[in-house]
């Protein structure tokens, strides 16, 4: 079936940092030309989203008019807008006033950033942790901003591979560092709940750019530091 195919890409497989895969052929649109969803858009689309959830309830064999479900379409619509609020934000706004000139040339690492996203194939949660490292080249980013970048990209409909790459590319474009490494460990509810994936297994993806890709010592230092 098509959906099993789609999510087999999320099957647990160890990332092998020694053989980085060639960059995806898929066109990667830059955050610089991003269009966002406004709060007005949210307000305007709420009634039709709620109506769509009523249809879903009926389609599932439920009665949208029974008491427990009366407000469910509106709640679900509002919740879905929240789960995808990354469309309301732009990376460029996060970067404003957060990039500093600094002669720091040691690796910067922020690990265990909580991540909550939505699988774009099944519209159910993906959640896990993100570890980010970069080797600055005269410019650094406020540390809390790395978590904000994760938040903006994860609160959208995603596949884990793209999420991982988008975070790495955004940091690269913003800071032009010597290198960036991003590792995402996540559980996909679409896999766990359908029994495709065991409860405690995780999908690991990584993107290594610059010296993280070219220099095994730098990459190993990063991978060691995020595991301790
Ligand atoms: Zn899925």
From TrEMBL:
InterPro entries: GTP-CH-I_C/QueF (IPR043133), GTP-CH-I_N (IPR043134), GTP_CycHdrlase_I (IPR001474), GTP_CycHdrlase_I_CS (IPR018234), GTP_CycHdrlase_I_dom (IPR020602). Residues 51-227 form the GTP cyclohydrolase I domain. One of its GO terms (biological process) is tetrahydrobiopterin biosynthetic process. Residues 30-40 have a biased composition (Basic and acidic residues). Keywords: Allosteric enzyme, Cytoplasm, GTP-binding, Hydrolase, Metal-binding, Nucleotide-binding, Nucleus, Tetrahydrobiopterin biosynthesis, Zinc. It comes from the Eukaryota. This is GTP cyclohydrolase 1. The keyword Zinc applies. Its main location: cytoplasm. GO terms for cellular component: cytoplasm; nucleus. Its EC number is 3.5.4.16. Gene3D superfamilies: 1.10.286.10, 3.30.1130.10. One of its GO terms (molecular function) is GTP binding. Pathway: Cofactor biosynthesis; 7,8-dihydroneopterin triphosphate biosynthesis; 7,8-dihydroneopterin triphosphate from GTP: step 1/1. Residues 1-44 are annotated as: Disordered. Pfam families: GTP_cyclohydroI. It is found in: Cytoplasm; Nucleus. Belongs to the GTP cyclohydrolase I family. It catalyses: GTP + H2O = 7,8-dihydroneopterin 3'-triphosphate + formate + H(+).
């Amino acid at each position: 079936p098509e959906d099993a195919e789609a999510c087999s890409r999320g099957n647990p497989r160890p990332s092998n940092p020694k053989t980085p895969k060639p960059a995806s052929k898929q066109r990667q649109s830059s955050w610089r030309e991003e269009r966002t969803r406004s709060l007005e858009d949210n307000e305007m689309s709420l009634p039709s989203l709620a109506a769509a959830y009523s249809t879903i309830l009926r389609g599932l064999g439920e009665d949208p008019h029974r008491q427990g479900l009366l407000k469910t379409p509106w709640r679900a619509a509002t919740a879905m807008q929240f789960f995808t609020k990354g469309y309301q934000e732009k990376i460029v706004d996060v970067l404003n006033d957060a990039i500093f000139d600094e002669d720091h040339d040691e690796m910067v690492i922020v690990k265990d950033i909580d991540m909550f996203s939505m699988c774009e194939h099944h519209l159910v949660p993906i959640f896990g942790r993100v570890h980010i490292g970069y080797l600055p080249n005269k410019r650094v980013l406020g540390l809390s901003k790395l978590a904000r970048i994760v938040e903006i990209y994860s609160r959208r409909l995603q596949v884990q591979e793209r999420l991982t790459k988008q975070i790495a590319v955004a940091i690269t474009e913003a800071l032009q560092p010597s290198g960036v490494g991003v590792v995402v460990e996540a559980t996909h509810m679409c896999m766990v709940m359908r029994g495709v994936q065991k409860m405690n297994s995780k999908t690991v993806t990584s993107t290594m750019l610059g010296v993280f890709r070219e220099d095994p010592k730098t990459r190993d230092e990063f991978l060691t530091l995020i595991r301790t």
